[in-house]
Structure formats: C-alpha cells, structure tokens
Amino acid sequence: MNAEFHDHVLTTSGNGTIATLVEHQSRIPLVSSRAIVFDAGDANWSETQLRIAHADHHAVFAAMRSRQGMRAEAIMREHAQRSYHKKREKFAAMKATLLTPSIPSLELVRSPEDAPLSL
Q: Predicted confidence band at 117 (pLDDT cuts at 50, 70, 90)?
C-alpha cells in the first residue's frame, strides 16, 4: 500500500521532473519509499512508525483533495525527512550492536558524519 500511495501521488502531480527524480532515487538501496525499516527488538517502535507514516499519507491525501498543494508538499517533505532520520537512527543502532556481522553490506550505509571511504 505504501508504494501504491507514493506512485499515485507522483502520477497525479503531473510533474515529470519529480517523477523522474524519485524513480532514480528509488534505485538506491534503503533510500526508496519502498524501503521500510523495522526493529525486530522493538515492535512498538515499528508499529508507531507505521502509524505515523499512514497518518501522513491520509493528511497528504486530504490536502490534495482540498487542493492545498503547498500543504501537501510540506507534509510530504516532513514525511521524507522523518523517514530519512529514522532510518539513520536505526542503522546507527544496528552498527553499534552485534547485529552488524549478520547484515551483509551494512558498512556501505554511511552517514554524513562518517569518515570518508579510503580506497
């Protein structure tokens, strides 16, 4: 349902540039709107995040129905920022635990604060 909602918003926006940008970023692992992070150790956190995202979707839809484009945009921006920060928070926590060795390529997920890669 999450992917369908995001696809619908892009389609109805009529903005080909945004659709193209989102399509390109969706190819980046863990950046796509289809990438959802769950916390196996904290089901309440995961459920809360899903409820917040679902409420965002309803708010965006309501704004679009009432032709409040700027409000819909602001909600989508906040929705994207919240997703970004929550994913970063969870990956930082995973890196700090014993889960890291069991997650292939987790070390490739970097935050701006991480030191640059050395080749």
A: very low
pLDDT at residue 15, rounded to an integer:
82
Residue written as token pair 């060795």: 101
Beta carbons of 1 and 33 less than 8 angstroms apart: no
Contact 15, 72 (CB under 8 A): no
Percent pLDDT > 70 in the chain is 73
Q: What's residue 119's pLDDT?
A: 43
CB of 9 within 8 A of CB of 59? no
Residue ranges per structural domain of the chain: 2-89
100 vs 107: CA distance, rounded Å: 8
Output the CA torsion 110→28→105→99 (10° steps): 70
Is the full-model pTM beyond 0.70?
A: no
Cα angle value 105/107/113 (rounded, 5°): 150
